[in-house]
Amino acid sequence: MAMIIGFLDIFIAFIFFLVFRCLLLYKQTHKFCPRTGQFLGCFRVCSSKSIVSTTVDPVNIHYILSSNFVNYPKGMEFKKIFEVIEDAIFNIDSGMWEDMRNSSHAIFSRQDFQSLWVSTSVSKINQGLVPILDNAVEKNILVDLQDVFQRFLFDTSTILMTGYDLKCLSIEMPKVDFGDAVDGVSDAIFYRHVKPACGSYNIEEFRPERWISASGRLKHEPSYKFLAFNAGPRTCLGKKLTFLQMKTVAVNIIQNYEIQVVEGHKTEPVPSVLLRMQHGLKVRVAKI
Ligand SMILES: *[C@@H]1O[C@H](CO)[C@@H](O)[C@H](O)[C@H]1NC(C)=O
């Protein structure tokens, strides 16, 4: 169970965690964020009629997720919204959360578990990813990398969780009912509970220099500035494993293929609790 819960954390790459629990200013009179002037805005959480404030200010995020973590439990409102995942680690607080976090951590940090994760990824690359890319090269067809990587993650996760390979990542690209259901559920949660009024900035631009320093080295930003894996005591337990898998896949692709995003392809985010692209990521593949 702990493992399934841990993988949910990996799956849910960018939950709008703050959006729901950031600051119920009206209820939490004893503690305020340091920069209350810099909240983005308010919107209604439909089920509760309560007003929720949102923030993107890293100082506030650090305060809420790290330095004052214990004052900001998820609470019952959050649990009601995400009832579909019941008592998953993502949805619980205090002792139950700590207990589950500790047991998941014990599994994730084991050397043999990490080795299994890598060997599972490598064999999925060889038996799933490479045939798809080779087929695309040979037949000169476009590939939706978002779909490919979702299937990759889905297969490798279910192998580790259940010991069974669903083989979603294959040239036939079979329909994945469970994957569709996860997308459907997360969209439904979003539309049912949030009337979005969130701000946005130039997130659509491809600007890798955001992550490169003036001297050309990789820029390390604190996790509260980049919430893909959350921050503070709730930092995603699968973060290390995810990076391990991403690097394994990236190295294999970069060494063997040239990938080019189809000209004019629009990468718009889907308004949902899972961050994904509206039209996938259509690319052309060539062999190096
Ligand atoms: C979880 O682990 C921490 C650090 O090892 C420990 O202090 C704490 O008592 C543990 N909590 C539970 C509920 O097991």
UniProtKB/TrEMBL annotation:
Keywords: Heme, Iron, Membrane, Metal-binding, Monooxygenase, Oxidoreductase, Transmembrane, Transmembrane helix
Residue stretches spanning the membrane: 6-26
Cofactor section: heme
Recorded GO MF terms: heme binding; iron ion binding; monooxygenase activity; oxidoreductase activity, acting on paired donors, with incorporation or reduction of molecular oxygen
Alphabetical list of PROSITE patterns matching this protein: CYTOCHROME_P450 (PS00086)
Any Pfam family the entry gives: p450
GO biological process: lipid metabolic process
Gene3D superfamilies: Cytochrome P450
Statement: the UniProt record of this protein carries the keyword Magnesium: no
Family recorded in the similarity comment: Belongs to the cytochrome P450 family.
Protein name: Cytochrome P450
Native source species: Brassica carinata (Ethiopian mustard)
Organism placement in taxonomy: Eukaryota, Viridiplantae, Streptophyta, Embryophyta, Tracheophyta
